[in-house]
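Data card: per-record layout.
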Amino acid sequence: MNKIIETDDYFLEAGENASHFLVTTAMTEKHYANWFLYSLSSWRVYARRYGLGILCFKRDLIDRSSPAYKNGSWQKMLAPMIAHNLVPNISRVCLIDSDIVVGPFAANIFEHAPEGFYSVVSLINNLPFPEALVLRRIAFFRNKYYSNSYPLDSFLLGDPFDEFRDLGLEPPENYFCAGVVVLDISMAGQMRDWYFSVESSKDFDAWEQTHLNYWIQNSKHYWLPYEFQAIWKYEMAWKYPFLYSLGESIQSSELAGKCIRASLWNSHFLHFAGSWHESLGWKQSVINLPELDDNVDNLSSFLSAEVTGAKKGKITPECM
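The structure for this 320-residue chain is written out next.
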């Protein structure tokens, strides 16, 4: 039986022997409420299946008056060490953004992420579609359906490695989204030290991803497959462009819900990153639908069952 602890500072749910945790930050009432409503149910199914714990920090992990204060995106780098203080037997952490929904067939990420490495998901390599084309589709459809003021040529289509050059950092060979990072708890001190190594400033405060890419790719790291952080805005632009016509109503559209469920069936983690209307698809409680739960066990059983492929003659709808 899992124990649930909720305080003003954090939400924790775990079995007595849980040592691997999903850890996230949702540091405003709105962010926490959204995580609780739209992500937690899928995380619970996943955590209970594999004996994982869940920890969500609800408030700043460093005092706002501190000279070292940076926003919540940066503060997640402090989360593993603080998680260790709360749960002494924790051994591994998956730092995961709060706007990620876990698919019903999701594999245990800790079994795919080797110990001793930072494990991350590339935004460039191993995508199921060409990166340059999917980004152009996003720009085109946003301009056509959301606002004709949306630029067809912007930073969205720029070289992400320019950010490294602007900060005086040597560009790495790859680039990941920091929405999913798996690490051993023994690495928590290093991640905390990285946080404090960068002075707070307007230039750095909004965006930790460039620095984190630099640090992790200069450490022992491992590339997880795209399915461990499928990006919904990519999925939508490539597979479901007709959803752009919904605009903000994507969050209440039955059709959009079916498309999101389809992506969840083929993804471990589905990330609704971003501030444009695509990301409002997160606010569909698609994981809770009864037919999804019913089909998961049935399909899982069938996929592992033996079959003979025996000939049964021509099969048509009329014979059924």
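Known properties of this structure: The CA atoms of residues 161 and 171 lie 6 Å apart. The two ends are 44 Å apart (CA to CA).

See the next section for split statistics.
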